[in-house]
UniProtKB/TrEMBL annotation:
Oligomer status and interactors: F-type ATPases have 2 components, F(1) - the catalytic core - and F(0) - the membrane proton channel. F(1) has five subunits: alpha(3), beta(3), gamma(1), delta(1), epsilon(1). F(0) has three main subunits: a(1), b(2) and c(10-14). The alpha and beta chains form an alternating ring which encloses part of the gamma chain. F(1) is attached to F(0) by a central stalk formed by the gamma and epsilon chains, while a peripheral stalk is formed by the delta and b chains.
Membrane topology: Single-pass membrane protein
Stated family: Belongs to the ATPase B chain family.
Purpose of the protein: F(1)F(0) ATP synthase produces ATP from ADP in the presence of a proton or sodium gradient. F-type ATPases consist of two structural domains, F(1) containing the extramembraneous catalytic core and F(0) containing the membrane proton channel, linked together by a central stalk and a peripheral stalk. During catalysis, ATP synthesis in the catalytic domain of F(1) is coupled via a rotary mechanism of the central stalk subunits to proton translocation.
Keywords attached to this entry: ATP synthesis, Cell membrane, CF(0), Coiled coil, Hydrogen ion transport, Ion transport, Membrane, Transmembrane, Transmembrane helix, Transport
Coiled-coil intervals: 64-105
SUPFAM superfamilies listed in its UniProt record: F1F0 ATP synthase subunit B, membrane domain (SSF81573)
Cellular component per GO, a single term: proton-transporting ATP synthase complex
Subcellular localization: Cell membrane
The keyword Coiled coil appears for this protein: yes
Name of this protein: ATP synthase subunit b
Positions of transmembrane segments: 27-46
């Protein structure tokens, strides 16, 4: 082989052949194995590679469709959640308003009851005061009457033991006393 290479270089030296351009017979013999490799590649490797790429594309498309479906479900869930939240807020507002109205009604009822109770207490107190006043007047009349009768007996010098006479004198005295009080007031 070395001798052939030397012979080729020697012949090339005479013809000025470029070492970068191969000889035509080398191109021919290089094209045959290249054609065999291309044939095997396109016959056996490319179909398997195409099947793998198609399968991968199908997986990717399936993943995309699953992602789109999941995104649609998430959007529907978000919309449902938003609707439930809005409904819950509306219900909470309604419950708050009902509670405020009920509180106002209870407050009004309590005020009315308190007013009635206050009126009843005032009326009871007025009745009690009036009863005590009447009792004081009766007690005062009897005590003042007894004192006035005794005093009048001492002044007049005669006994006022007669009840009818005593009552007339007491009534006249108290009437004069009330008239004097009203005149001064």
């Amino acid at each position: 082989m070395t001798q052939q290479a030397i012979a080729i270089f020697a012949a090339a030296g005479e013809e000025n052949i470029n070492p970068l351009i191969p000889a035509p017979f080398e191109i021919f013999w290089s094209l045959i194995p290249l054609a065999v490799v291309f044939f095997v590649f396109f016959r056996y490797v490319m179909p398997k590679l195409g099947a793998v790429l198609d399968e991968r594309a199908a997986l990717i498309e399936g993943g995309i469709s699953k992602a789109e479906k999941a995104q649609a479900e998430a959007a529907a869930a978000l919309e449902e959640y938003t609707a439930q939240l809005t409904e819950a807020r509306a219900e909470a507002a309604r419950i708050r308003e009902d509670a405020r109205a009920e509180a106002a009604q209870i407050l009004a009822e309590t005020r009315v009851k308190a007013g009635h109770e206050a009126d009843r207490i005032v009326e009871t107190a007025n009745k009690q005061i009036e009863a005590e006043r009447q009792q004081a007047i009766v007690s005062l009349r009897s005590d003042v009457g007894a004192l006035a009768t005794e005093l009048a007996s001492k002044i007049v010098g005669e006994s006022l033991a007669d009840d009818a006479r005593q009552q007339r004198v007491i009534d006249a005295f108290l009437t004069d006393l009330e008239a004097n009080v009203k005149a001064e007031g």
